[in-house]
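User: two proteins, same treatment. go.

Assistant:
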Amino acid sequence: MKSNIKIPAQLLKNPLHFLSLGFGSGLSPKAPGTMGTLAAVPVYFLVQQYSDLNGYLFITLLISLLGVYLCGYTSRALKVHDHPGIVIDEIAGFLITMIAVPFSWLNVLAGFVLFRVFDILKPWPISWLDKNVHGGLGIMLDDVLAGLFSLLILHILVNYQVL
C-alpha cells in the first residue's frame, strides 16, 4: 500500500536517500513516480551518450542492484514499505526500457510513456510481484519487470518502424 507520509527534505542530505529519492524528484507532491521517471531521462541521456552497449548494460545493472539496497534503506528509514517518494526503481526501470534503443526524442518519449503505463497499471505478473515480494527487492522488481515489458514493446515499435 502506498503512503502519503511526507518525506522531510533534510533526508536529501544523506547521499543514499538522495539517490533513492531520485535526486529529490521523489519529493514531488504530485506524481512522484512520473517525476522520478522524468529524472531518469538525463541519466539515460548521459549513459547512452558516453558508453557503448556493454557500458550501458553494466551501469543499468549496477543501478538496479544498488537500487535494491537503496530502496530497502530508505524504506526502513521512513518506516513505510514502498513509499511513493522512493523512485530509484523508476530510474532503473526507465534505463531498462531504453536498452539498445536508438536515440531519438520520439523513442525517449515512447519509452517514457510505455514505462509509465506499465508501472501505473501493473498488469500481471507485475501486480503479483508488487503485492508479494517485499523489502528493497520487492520495491525494485515490479519496476524492473515494467521496464522489460516496455523494452519489448519499444523494440517491436522501433524494429517495425512504427516510431
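Protein 2:
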Amino acid sequence: MRSICFSQDIHWSQFNDNQLFQNPANAGHFDGDYRFIANYRDQWRSVTVPFSTISGSVDARWKSLGYGLLFFHDVAGDGKFRTVELQFNASNQFKLTKDSSNLLRLGVNFGLNHRQINWNNLYFDSQYNGYIFDPSAPTFENFQSDKKSNYSLGLGALYEWRKHKRFSVISGFSAFNLNQPNHGFYSQEIKRDVRYSLFSKGTFQLNRQWDIIPSMQLSFQGVYRELILGGSAKYYLPSKLGDYKALHGGLWFRNSDAAYLTLGMDYQQLFVGISYDINVSKLVPASNLRGGFEIAIRYIINAFKPKKIIHRVCPDFI
C-alpha cells in the first residue's frame, strides 16, 4: 500500500537569527563587513527519534550589493530522512531618500537540495506475523530510489525605516521553491510547495539602557500555516573602555504548537542566543510539554580600513 504525505521546509524558533533562511534580501544587510551565523535545533527527543538540524551561513557586502551562502543539514525520524541544502543569496540595496532613512532591498536565492532516506530502518505491517515483530521477514515493498537531488529558486524584498540605530522598523516578504522541484522518490512527481514568508521587526529605545524588540513571522507552504508572535527586551550592560555588552530576553508563541523563551547576550561583535520550546499542541500527552532546544551564534567582522594619508608638496621657498 502506498500513502501520500505532506511536508514543509525546516523552521526555526530564533527566526531573526537565521537571516538568509528568512529572506534572501537579508544578504549583506548588517553593520559590518562579514557576518557568520551558526544554528542548531534539536526537537521531539521526548516523543521519538529526535529531529536534528544544523545550519551555517556567511554573507558580506560590497557597496550596495550583498551576497552570501547558506548551508543546512536536517535529519528526521526513524528512517533518518536526511535533507542537505546549499543556497546562494544575493541582494541589492536602493536608497529611497537621500538621508538613507528609507531603504529597499531586493534579493534572489538559488539552492541545491539533496534528500535521502534509509528504508532499512523502517517497519512494515508485513513484518508482523500476528504475534510478534520479525525484522527478518520480507517487507514486500519495492523501493525505486532512496535519494533525490534538485534545485530551487527564490525571491525576496524588504523595506527598512531607520531613525537611528536603536529606533527602526524592518519588514520583508519572500517566496522560496518557486520552480516547485520534484522531491518524490518514486516515478510519481511530488512537487515541493512554494514557501511564502512575511516578517516584521521593530527596535524601539525606551531609555539609555533598555530597548524593546517586537517581531512577527507568518509562513505559508501548501496546507501548512505558521504564525509566530512575540518580542524581546534588550538591556545594555555598563561598559568600560568602549566595550559593548547587552542581554536579551524574550517570550514567543507559535500558533497551535508551542510557546518558547529566548535568552541571549551580545559581547562586542559576538552574539549567542538560546531558546526552548514548550509544546502546547495536541501532542502534549506524548511530549510532556517538551518541544525543542535551539542555539544561535552570530559573529560580525569589521575589516580594518587604513586612513588615506594625502601628502602635500610644499614649494621650496616656504
